[in-house]
């Protein structure tokens, strides 16, 4: 629920910064006079931009709940976006993505991915913009102060599900291009869009489409821009040029097929949950340091130059702490916080399948549990090396417990 207007303005700015930047080998960036006109055009048309955002936010394009009526809303959303892109003069391919198989055997259609192209001048670089138009579920009861599916202005800020993630930024890109078009200004880059409607549900089937289009749609792409990220402060726009990777693990401990009762078996078993808790507890210490041997070996060493870059970053710790609603972080300084978010690996424990997680007391001993954790990867960690290190560490810890579970 971030202030929308600022984010929209910033995304437009991002486009313009890119257009101004040093990426043009054979075509020149717009002059400052042109940019002046464009900024003026944006100011004059602000109400129209907000009106479009209002229409988009009003569509409950929730991809997380697998319900047919919500899925239809995403289809509607993708249709409206395709029309808007065509209106820009882009050629739009609406790619059929097949079906999502649900655990109950039901099939739900996956909304199309839009592949759009505007301009194909071989002398210009090609920028591809990624965005998604589906959203997470939202209900007033979740703590929203306004109806999540109406765009509502409070204190000069616009609130509504999807305003920043990610309908607003997609619209901002479209509006930026439209501003160039409206003023009859040559756009110094070829533009492509890839827009999906299943991001919040794990971008189902998107990777296959991208691989399929490698030699066609993506063959001419020089730059990919993703406006689906965070600002670190509320006042300064951020340009993200890299993110950490992620490797996800599950670890299963099993004794037998049926659960036990603590009255009849408690005290004579190596309980799977106890084994799993000790495995999970061996991964990271209370200062956030990962305890898997060798895990930091390949992490790029911190240079003096890099250190100085962190000192120059504008982050108000008090504001950051308040907006995060966390009493105390593992680190006190801005530099340490940012480095541990950006340039060091981290390990997070996410959940236990098979655990008794409902309220109240129950005397069951789960016979089989699956722990879930993930590691955020940084340069120059190697995914298969990390996998081997994690496996070896868990096996070592498990063998120390001398447990007959497996
Ligand atoms: Zn997003």
Distance between the termini: 45 Å
Average pLDDT score = 90
What number of domains? 2
User: What structural category do the secondary elements indicate?
Assistant: alpha+beta
H and E string? HHHHEEEEEEEHEHEEEHHHHHEEEH
Task: Tell me what the CATH architecture of the largest domain is.
Answer: 3-Layer(aba) Sandwich
Q: So what's the overall shape?
A: globular
Strand order of the largest sheet: 1-4-8-5-9
Describe the largest sheet.
Answer: 5 strands, mixed
Helix content: 25-40%
Give the low-pLDDT segments: 1-26
CATH superfamily of the largest domain: Zn peptidases
Tell me the number of helical segments per DSSP (H or I, 4 or more residues long): 12
Radius of gyration: 25 Å
Strand content: 15-25%
For the record, the CATH class of the largest domain is: Alpha Beta
Q: What is the CATH T-level topology of the largest domain?
A: Aminopeptidase
Description:
This protein is an alpha+beta fold and 406 residues long. It has two domains: 4-226, 3-Layer(aba) Sandwich (Aminopeptidase); 245-300 and 343-401, Alpha-Beta Plaits (2-Layer Sandwich). 36% of the residues lie in helices and 18% in strands. The protein is built from twelve helices and 14 strands. The chain has helices at 4-20, 32-44, 46-57, 68-87, 163-182, 206-212, 262-265, 272-281, 304-312, 317-324, 334-342, 383-401; strands spanning 91-95, 99-101, 107-109, 113-118, 126-132, 152-154, 157-159, 190-196, 223-226, 245-254, 260-261, 346-353, 364-365, 368-377. A five-stranded mixed β-sheet has the order 1-4-8-5-9, with helices on one face. A three-stranded antiparallel β-sheet has the order 10-14-12. The two termini are 45 Å apart. The model is unreliable at 1-26 (pLDDT under 50). The structure holds zinc ion (ZN). Zinc ion binds next to α5.
């Amino acid at each position: 629920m971030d202030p929308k207007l600022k984010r929209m303005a910033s995304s437009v700015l991002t486009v313009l910064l890119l257009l101004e930047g040093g990426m043009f080998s054979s075509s020149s960036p717009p002059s400052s006079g042109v940019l002046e006109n464009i900024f003026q055009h944006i100011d004059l048309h602000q109400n129209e931009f907000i009106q479009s955002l209002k229409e988009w936010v009003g569509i409950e394009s929730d991809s997380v709940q697998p319900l047919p009526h919500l899925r239809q809303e995403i289809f509607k959303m993708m249709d409206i976006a395709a029309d808007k892109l065509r209106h820009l003069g882009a050629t739009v391919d609406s790619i059929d993505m097949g079906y999502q198989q649900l655990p109950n055997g039901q099939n739900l259609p996956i909304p199309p991915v839009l592949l759009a192209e505007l301009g194909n001048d071989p002398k210009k670089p090609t920028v591809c913009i990624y965005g998604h138009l589906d959203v997470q579920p939202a209900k007033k009861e979740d703590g929203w102060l306004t109806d999540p599916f109406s765009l509502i202005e409070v204190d000069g800020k616009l609130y509504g599900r999807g305003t920043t993630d990610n309908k607003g930024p997609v619209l901002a890109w479209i509006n930026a291009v439209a501003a160039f078009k409206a003023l009859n200004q040559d756009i110094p880059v070829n533009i492509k869009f890839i827009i999906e409607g299943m991001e919040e549900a794990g971008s189902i089937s998107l990777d296959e489409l991208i691989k399929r289009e490698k030699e066609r749609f993506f063959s001419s792409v020089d730059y990919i821009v993703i406006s689906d990220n965070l600002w670190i402060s509320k006042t300064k726009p951020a340009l993200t040029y890299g993110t950490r990777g992620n490797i996800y693990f599950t670890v299963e401990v099993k004794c037998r097929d049926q659960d036990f009762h603590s009255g009849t078996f408690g005290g004579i078993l190596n309980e799977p949950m106890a084994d799993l808790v000790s495995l999970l507890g061996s991964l990271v210490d209370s200062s956030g340091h990962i305890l898997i041997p060798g895990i930091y070996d390949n992490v790029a060493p911190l240079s003096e130059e890099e250190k100085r870059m962190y000192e120059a970053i504008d982050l108000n710790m008090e504001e950051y702490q308040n907006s995060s609603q966390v009493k105390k972080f593992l680190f006190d300084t801005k530099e340490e916080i940012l480095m541990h978010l950006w340039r060091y690996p981290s390990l997070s424990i996410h959940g236990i399948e098979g655990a008794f997680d409902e309220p109240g007391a129950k005397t069951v001993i789960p016979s089989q549990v699956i722990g879930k954790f993930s590691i955020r990867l940084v340069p120059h960690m190697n995914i298969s090396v990390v996998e081997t290190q994690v496996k070896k560490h868990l096996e070592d810890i498990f063998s120390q417990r001398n447990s007959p579970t497996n």
